[in-house]
Write a structure and sequence with these properties.
- By secondary structure, the chain is an alpha/beta fold.
- The chain contains 15 helices and 17 strands.
- The chain folds into 2 domains: 3-292, 3-Layer(aba) Sandwich (UDP-N-acetylmuramoyl-L-alanine:D-glutamate ligase); 300-432, Mur ligase, C-terminal domain (Protein-Tyrosine Phosphatase, Chain A, Alpha-Beta Complex).
- It has helices at 3-16, 27-35, 56-69, 98-112, 122-137, 173-176, 180-187, 206-214, 264-276, 283-292, 313-324, 344-351, 371-380, 392-402, 415-428, and strands at residues 46-51, 74-77, 89-91, 94-95, 141-145, 162-165, 197-199, 219-221, 227-230, 239-245, 251-258, 300-302, 305-307, 332-336, 357-361, 385-389, 408-412.
- A hairpin with a 2-residue loop joins β3 (89-91) and β4.
- α7 (180-187) packs parallel to α8 (206-214).
- It is globular and about 60 Å long.
Length: 437
């Protein structure tokens, strides 16, 4: 069996071996982590854990880029992936190869069966495999992105040296509830006593800071301990500056930073977090890192196509704000596919001012919402649905055949939507066939 086939077989096996896909709680994960000796010694010289409703991926991407540009050995664990499972673990900026991931899964499987067998979900097994590989890699900085919530997420079995909460908004209501204070308390579960807490939004619910105060965790909040400022963002070549706080309390600043094409709140969070992780930020190195950072599926432009995995109203409002700043010659169309447990009406309402017409598509699986249901939400707001697609690929192919020169297209609503659309675009070569400029 080849390494690639072996990885595919492992992933298929993991999908089958636990009765539910999401089973929040740390008891089972902690037991297997103990058997793997992951709790005996630090995972890395510095561990940074990032939680939040939106902004986790972009924050981790900028943390990784800036740390690497400063010569640090990095490991980053994120989820979910778009095209390849390997995307979830990066060592020194490179995706883990199939053989390494298989070795990690084998180590986890041996540990979970060493004594009373322990059941693990797909995500839990993958997280433990990644943590085991990171521990063997022994990086200078390990970056861990929380999958869902925080307090009971598998990533939280590891104690961070610096914990980050980016934003708190409604999402995953079936698991986290709908009250923002409750959601905030869950995400603040990654904070640790006496260790820095970086708060990346000025609108976090009070429960986040209350949790930090209860733990005597030093709080470094946006617009308090750190901030960013810039001129006219619409001008080509515009720059911004960051002001932050070093671990000893002294003020630090960086000037002339390039726009990374990702939320500047998250860029400022990344710089503040690294400063608290004892990284002496160099202006030139930081400029290089921010000018090169790329994050697939986050306002990712491919010719006239813009792909963004945003799937809640908070994320959609940010995307709409960015689109509003972008000139266009033709129509702006949206290919939308969403899961049934997401706030479709809220997402459509946030995007609607920037969208001329819509293509709705069906997703597959137990949590799927079909194109007709989405079309009902769109038409209920008086907007036009051009096509109802059986899948994101069907929607991409229809748009590719029917779009006009000068149109641009937003693809959003779910990781699944963007992943399938991205694969279809690569197959069609559509991203480079027409220009949005």
């Amino acid at each position: 069996m080849t390494a690639a086939t072996s990885l595919q077989a492992w992933l298929a096996r993991l999908e089958r071996q636990h009765p539910v896909a999401i089973d929040l709680g740390l008891e089972r994960v902690a037991e297997v982590a103990r058997r793997l000796a992951l709790l005996d010694t630090p995972l890395a010289t510095r561990v940074i854990t990032v939680a939040g409703t939106n902004g986790k991926g972009s924050t981790v991407a900028m943390l990784e880029a800036v740390a690497r540009e400063h010569g640090l050995r990095t490991a980053a664990y994120t989820s979910p992936h778009l095209l390849r499972y390997n995307e979830r673990l990066r060592l020194a900026g490179c995706e883990a190869d199939d053989a390494a991931l298989v070795e990690g899964f084998e180590a986890v499987e041996a540990a979970r069966l060493d004594g009373d067998p322990v059941t693990l979900t797909y995500f839990e097994a993958g997280t433990l495999a990644a943590l085991w590989l990171i521990a063997r890699w022994q990086p200078d900085v390990a970056l861990l992105e929380v999958g869902l919530g925080g307090r009971l997420d598998a990533v939280n079995v590891i104690d961070p040296d610096v914990a980050v909460v980016t934003t708190v908004a409604q999402d995953h209501a079936a698991f986290l509830g709908t009250h923002l204070d409750t959601i905030g308390r869950e995400k603040a579960g990654i904070l640790r006593a006496g260790r820095p807490a970086v708060l990346g939004s000025t609108t976090l619910p009070a429960s986040v800071r209350e949790r930090a105060d209860a733990l005597s965790a030093p709080v470094f909040a946006l617009q308090e301990a750190f901030a960013w400022r810039m001129g006219d963002r619409g001008q080509e070549g515009s720059e911004w500056q960051w002001q932050g706080t070093a671990p000893g309390g002294e003020k630090v600043a960086l000037h002339g930073l390039p726009d990374p094409g990702l939320p500047l709140d998250n860029a400022a969070v990344a710089l503040q977090t690294l400063a608290l992780a004892d990284v002496k930020l160099d202006e030139t190195a930081t400029r290089r890192a921010l000018s090169r950072v790329v994050l697939a599926g986050r306002l990712q432009w491919m010719g006239p196509w813009c792909l963004d995995v945003g799937h809640n109203p908070h994320a959609a409002a940010y995307v709409a704000g960015q689109l509003a700043q972008r000139p266009r010659r033709g129509r702006r169309l949206c290919l939308l596919g969403m899961l049934a447990d997401k706030d479709a009406d809220g997402v459509i309402a946030a995007l609607a001012p920037q969208i001329d017409a819509w293509v709705t598509v069906s997703l597959s699986g137990d949590r799927a919402r079909d194109a007709a249901q989405l079309a009902t939400f769109v038409e209920g707001r008086g907007a036009k649905v051009l096509h109802q697609g059986a899948s994101p690929e069907d929607g991409v192919r229809w748009l590719h055949a029917n779009m006009d020169n000068g149109d641009d297209i937003l693809v959003c609503g779910s990781f699944w939507t963007v992943a399938e659309a991205l694969a279809a675009l690569e197959t069609l070569g559509a991203a480079s066939s027409r220009s949005a400029s």
